[in-house]
Design brief:
about 100 residues; alpha+beta; about 35% helix; globular; Calcium binding
Length: about 100
Amino acid sequence: MGTLDRAELEAMIEEATVDAYGEGEERTGLFTMLEQYLDLPFTTTVLGVEVTVRGVDLAPDGRIVARCSRGRVRQSIGILDLPLPNPAPEGAEWIEAYRHWAG
């Protein structure tokens, strides 16, 4: 990742937030794009442990989170804090766009 330039990221953000009014609706627009385009599930490593990312959610505090699991253990991790595997899953550029938007 990190291959998109600022103009490309801003075009993606514009696409996701075109009808949004305010930060909450903009975040929802970006969340919708993640939900639609991020290729799930995928595995990644969090704190040295392999986990499966099964989905994305809007947390009650407004953050976009990744729903992760390992065996029976489930945990939501802020998508901005989620280490991505190499190669990154299809659609991961939307995480990059969200990161750019979140500043």
